[in-house]
Design brief:
By secondary structure, the chain is an alpha/beta fold. It has helices spanning 78-89, 115-130, 158-161, 166-177, 189-193, 285-293, 315-328, 348-357, 373-378, 405-421, and strands spanning 4-7, 13-28, 33-38, 43-49, 57-64, 104-109, 134-139, 153-156, 181-185, 197-210, 221-235, 239-246, 252-259, 262-267, 305-308, 332-336, 340-341, 344-345, 361-365, 393-394, 397-398, 426-428. It folds into three domains: 4-68, no CATH class; 104-293, Rossmann fold; 305-428, TIM Barrel, CATH 3.20.20. It contains ten helices and 22 strands.
């Protein structure tokens, strides 16, 4: 068992092999093996390699006594038996439907900005991209509103806004008036055309309060601006909501306003002149856009799938946590299906129910040969043993010896009962662990 590795993501591998052939293959999502290979001879070393795992595959590396390619297939091992058992009892089909459309944004670009303005325009690009927007940039000189539609969020950073010609200002104003969506920061001819009134006085801003989440459920959240910024005082007659304000003077720093049939988000200062990442001044900037423009992020994003250990969260917090997942666009979670203890078990029914209400899929995530602490306590005779003969508890995992037929039957019965008891959306066994030091 010390010479086997099962890995589901790309990470450097260090696997000790002691006098055996190294066997390596990929297990694909359809259950087939590919790229199988063996070492030329038995080896005695620590195998080191990049451990690249292609999408929808699992990397398996192990030490074996002989090369079995071309010979009669050996008796099925645990992995083969478990995979066959799952396929036999449960029909797991992929989802169907249309592909959600990503929200789109266009950032007007200045090719020769100073460093703060370069950071600022890159911050818009990066902040929106992280949240799943399809963002493109257009040089301000070549931009016309005919290049976009009203559903696209148009972002005009200060550097580009300062260089727009009167015709471009008029066309953008008309776009917003006709139902468009616009983001801009700081005073410019464009902001004046939209009705933003500025004063000759400026205020030095040190700390800004977010007001979007300042309610009973979320306490007011603050962002300390380092360095502080000189912000020209302004007012917006068509103001709808204030999303952020100076902590001391309560001067608005982020305002949602109406212009004709459209809306615009006005920031009193640049989004982020310090870094190109877009988080130092307005950490909830993208949330302002989503809320103010009524934009829904796609439910399906490949990177928005979470492994979740239910035992780490109090029940009182799970409803709010799931709502946060929904707002962030999480499409699926893999819930650890092992939180069963001698005197307590997790309420998987409530978790699945609240996730389904928020449009989130829930997969049962098994960590075999760890079944549960309750299973471990009830069956000491089936516990796996370490090389020193001690019980196989390693970290938080309590390994059972699934090579014992009775233990395997009982573990499979546990899995089957749990899957039938609740309306799971699927099963995840990709985190199968056989050792604590090498398995993934």
């Amino acid at each position: 068992m010390d010479e086997r590795l099962v890995q589901t993501y790309t990470e450097t591998v260090q696997l000790p092999i002691h006098g055996h052939y190294l066997r390596r293959f990929l297990l694909r999502s359809d259950g087939r093996r590919s790229a199988e290979s063996y070492s030329d001879k038995p080896i005695e070393t620590i195998v080191k390699e990049p451990g690249v795992v292609p999408p929808d595959s699992i990397l398996v590396m192990e030490g074996v006594a002989e090369i079995v390619a071309g010979k009669e297939a050996p008796p099925p091992g645990f992995w083969d038996r478990f995979s066959a058992w799952v396929k036999e009892r449960f029909s797991l089909r992929g989802g169907s439907g249309t592909i959600p459309v990503q929200p789109q944004a266009v950032v007007l670009w200045d090719d020769t900005p100073a460093r703060p303005d370069a950071n600022n325009q890159n911050s818009y690009l990066n902040a929106l991209s992280v949240f799943g927007f399809r963002v493109t940039k257009h040089n301000y000189r070549e931009f016309t509103t005919g290049l976009i539609n009203r559903d696209t969020v148009l972002v005009v950073p200060r550097a580009a806004a300062a260089k727009l010609n009167p015709k471009q200002v008029d066309s953008i104003q008309a776009l917003v008036g006709d139902g468009g969506r616009l983001v801009l920061d700081g005073p410019s001819r464009l902001s004046q055309a939209l009705g933003v009134k500025t004063e000759r006085r400026a205020l030095r801003i040190h700390t800004v309060e977010d007001t979007l989440y300042a309610n009973k459920e979320y306490s007011t959240r603050e962002a300390e601006w380092k360095p502080p910024a000189e912000v020209v005082r302004f007012s917006v007659p068509s103001q709808l909501l204030v999303y952020a304000q100076d902590k001391v003077s309560e001067l608005p720093m982020a305002v949602l306003a109406r212009h004709g049939r459209g809306r615009f988000l006005y920031l009193g200062a640049r989004l982020d002149p310090t870094t190109p990442l877009g988080y130092t001044r307005y950490p909830y900037f993208v949330h302002y856009i989503l809320e103010g423009f009524g934009i829904k992020l796609p439910l399906q994003r490949s990177q928005l799938e979470l492994y979740f250990d239910p035992g780490s969260t109090k029940r009182a917090d799970i409803d709010r946590l799931v709502e946060d997942w929904r707002k962030l666009g999480v499409r699926a979670i893999y819930a650890g299906a092992y939180q069963f203890w001698p005197k307590w078990s997790y309420s998987y029914g409530h978790l699945i129910d609240i996730c389904h209400r928020n449009g989130i899929l829930v997969y049962a995530w098994f960590e075999l040969p760890h079944v549960s602490v309750k299973f471990w306590e009830e069956h000491p005779e089936w516990r796996a043993k370490t090389a020193s003969g001690e019980d196989g508890q390693v970290g938080w995992r309590y390994h059972m010896d699934l090579d014992i037929p009775e233990c395997q039957d009982a573990a499979f019965d546990f899995v089957e009962d749990l899957l039938k008891k609740y309306p799971w959306d699927g099963v995840n066994v990709a985190e199968l662990n056989t050792t604590a030091t090498t398995a993934r």
